[in-house]
Design a protein that fits this description.
- By secondary structure, the chain is α/β, with parallel strands linked by helices.
- The chain has 2 domains: 116 residues, Rossmann fold (3-Layer(aba) Sandwich), CATH 3.40.50.2300; 104 residues, LytTr DNA-binding domain (OB fold (Dihydrolipoamide Acetyltransferase, E2P)).
- The chain is 29% helix and 31% strand.
- The strands form 4 sheets. A 5-stranded parallel β-sheet has the order 2-1-3-4-5, with helices on both faces. The protein has a 5-stranded antiparallel β-sheet with strand order 10-9-8-12-11, with no helix packed on it. Strands 13-14-15 form a 3-stranded antiparallel β-sheet.
- β13 and β14 form a beta hairpin.
- The longest helix is centred in the middle third of the chain and has 16 residues.
- It starts with a strand and ends with a helix.
Length: 241
């Protein structure tokens, strides 16, 4: 796995590189302590995996991730105490507490390899690639963070300059326009139902006729989304109705 280490502490980077020598599947292609340089490196080198410090000057690890449209797999490296770690534990792919222990590092790498076998694939590394059901996106709303597999997202809903993302029981807001998001999503898997909604076609439970030639779609999560008359014919073509 082509890997980049991002940590503002030079000694921490050196220690992690030394520990990773035992893992032949890890190929360290770069390391940096500068978050802005890290963003450029990730976009250029397209690594499979990054080790990412949380607390860094100028941009913390979560802010850095917000600047990436497509993410490699991430293992957080942090000096946070146990209470702070628990706030992110459920949604992070994995994390390591400083100083990093070899046994814990082995567990994290094993978890990444297991995820590969389960087909939780890497996000597309090239910015013009379309996002599909198997891709994951990083979502941050306030202090809460998630790595969300797009197959779990039922619907995207526009709210002014923000988009609300519906997955599981969560409904976080992200600062992004629905038009911009629509350009990034695979049109064979996600459908622009109307001015305010993009729906995941795999979550459709039923489709019924609606007023003025439109349709109403009921999703498996319980949401009912109106499909405009203009988009209704397109949906019928997509679903072969």
């Amino acid at each position: 796995m082509r890997t980049i280490i991002i940590d503002d502490e030079r000694l921490a980077r050196s220690e992690l590189k030394s520990l990773l020598k035992e893992f032949t599947e890890i190929e360290i292609i770069a390391d940096t302590g500068n978050p802005d340089e890290a963003i450029q490196l990730i976009n250029i080198e397209k690594p499979d995996l990054i080790f990412l410090d949380i607390q860094m000057p100028e941009k913390d690890g979560f802010t850095l991730l917000e600047h990436l449209m497509h993410l490699p797999k991430v293992i957080f490296v942090t000096a946070f105490d146990d209470f702070a770690i628990r706030a992110f534990e459920v949604n992070a792919l994995d994390y390591l507490l400083k100083p990093v222990q070899t046994e814990r590092l082995a567990e994290a790498i094993k978890k990444i390899k297991t995820a590969d076998k389960l087909n939780t694939t890497l996000l597309p590394s090239v910015s013009n690639e379309m996002l599909g059901l198997n891709d994951r996106v990083f979502v941050k709303d306030g202090e809460k963070c998630w790595f969300v597999k797009l197959s779990d997202v039922r619907v995207f809903e526009s709210e002014g300059n923000y988009v609300r993302i519906y997955f599981d029981k969560n409904k976080p807001l992200i600062l992004k326009s629905l038009n911009n998001l629509n350009e990034k999503l695979n049109q064979k898997e996600f459908f622009r139902a109307n001015r305010k909604h993009i729906i995941n076609l795999s979550w459709i439970e039923s489709v019924e006729n609606w007023y003025n030639g439109g349709l109403v779609v009921k999703l498996k999560g319980g949401e009912q989304i109106e499909v405009s008359r203009r988009q209704a014919s397109k949906l019928k073509e997509v679903m072969s109705l």
